[in-house]
Amino acid sequence: MILNVMAGLVVGLFATSLFWGLHFLGELRSSLGSQALWAAVLFHAVTLVVTLWRQRSRELDIPFPKLMAAGLVVTLVAALVSGLGTWIFMAWIDPGFLDWVKEQSLAQLAELSLDEEQRRAQLEAVEASTPSSFVVQGMIAVLIRGFLLTLPIAALIRLRRVRSGPEAL
Question: Is residue 166's pLDDT more than 70?
Fold first, then answer.
């Protein structure tokens, strides 16, 4: 359990420091910054593989639900840490960030071919965004991503056969 919590802390701190670092480098509001944030997804996946592999090496016949639970603990801790980091960022470091996100969303919305009712609904959703809703949406995204990553990783690691004895040669 401690390994899972530590891995989640590392994932959350990595995502937060990447987000903050891109801001301080002036790249967060650029296309490079948007692409660089995919590194957090890759890091999350690699951390899940390493953590679940370690779980499997400690207990060779570990059940799939236990591997899933381990991956979900990592993801939950990562979501909480990155959510806190995003909240601190939006409250004290760059309070205008949400306004920029809204501007970008409205520009993308203008390019979509939607009927008037759909456009109005999307416009209301963008304008209703608050810092709290932005943080919660980010945390939900991490949780969904973690679930979707954990499911195949846990299955593949669980299915890995351990070879020993003469047939291993």
Answer: no
Cβ contacts of 73 within 8 Å, gap of 6 or more:
1, 4, 5, 8
- Cα separation, 71 vs 49, in Å, equals 9
CA distances from 7 to 55, 82, 99, 117, 144 (A): 12, 13, 33, 44, 17
For residues 90 and 131, the answer to whether their CB atoms sit within 8 Å is: yes
pLDDT digits (tens, 9 = 90+) for 15-72: 999 999 999 999 999 988 889 999 999 999 999 999 999 999 999 889 999 999 999 9
Q: What share of the chain is helix, strand, coil (3-state, %, to 5)?
A: 80, 0, 20
pTM exceeding the 0.85 threshold for the entire prediction: yes
Inter-residue contact 43 to 113 (CB < 8 Å): no
First-last CA distance in the chain: 35
With a cut of 50, say whether residue 168 has pLDDT above it: no
Phi-psi region of 26 (alpha: psi -120 to 50; beta: other; left: phi over 0): left
